[in-house]
Specification:
There is one protein chain. With 189 residues, the protein is an all-alpha fold. The protein has one domain (3-142): Orthogonal Bundle (Globin-like). Helix content is 76%, strand content 0%. It has helices at 3-9, 11-23, 28-36, 44-62, 70-82, 87-107, 115-164, 177-188. Helix 5 (70-82) crosses helix 7 and helix 6 packs antiparallel against helix 7. 19% of the residues are buried.
Length: 189
């Protein structure tokens, strides 16, 4: 039996096991909520994970290449990039797919999957992992840009308030070197 046929037959099990493994990366109360509530409006993260996983597995089974899964990887990683995950934790769910598939293959004693098909599948999953890391880095860069712009805007608003209050913002905000030196001499006396 070919690997593609076996995986197509076991698609529901693969999705369920992969989703469970992904949700285990969250704290228990969050994980329980994400598992129990299927409503896309009450639980958008859980819904996004399940929906995206289905599309990623289908693209993988069809041999569509990693770019076919970009949007669905982006949906998941965008959420994980703003959560309290390290980069490796944020994209580790892709590597978990390898283990899930291996477990499914090993459970089926009748399947004699050619090793070259497993190697090819591993390469496809590795390509998804690389793409996932790229997406993660783009999301983090965007977050840093947003934070930097926020600081710039806050500083601009503070300067505007200072001008309204009559404070000359062109003056040095920090004390001059002479004042610092005098204060240091006073401390050493």
């Amino acid at each position: 039996m070919s690997l593609a046929r076996l995986l197509s037959d076991k698609r529901a099990m693969i999705l369920s096991n992969w989703c469970d493994a992904m949700l285990d990366s969250y704290p228990q109360d969050t994980s329980n909520f994400l598992r129990k509530n299927d409503n896309r409006f009450a639980n958008p993260v859980g819904h996004t994970i399940r929906d995206s996983f289905e599309h990623i597995v289908d693209s993988l089974l069809q041999g569509s290449g990693p770019e076919a899964s970009r949007v669905f990887l982006d949906n998941i990683i965008r959420v994980r990039a703003v959560q309290d995950f390290s980069p490796s934790q944020a994209v580790s769910f892709i590597f978990v797919l390898k283990k899930v598939i291996r477990d499914v293959v090993l459970q089926d004693k009748t399947a004699a999957v050619p090793p070259e098909e497993l190697v090819s599948l591993d390469e496809s999953i590795d390509a998804l992992a690389l793409l996932s890391f790229e997406i993660y880095m783009q999301c983090r860069e965007k977050l840093y840009d947003i934070k930097a712009n926020e600081v710039k805007n806050m500083t601009f608003r503070l300067l505007q308030k200072a001008q309204k209050m009559g404070i000359d913002s062109s003056e040095d905000v920090c004390p001059s070197e002479d004042v610092v030196n005098i204060k240091q001499e006073e401390v050493t006396k």
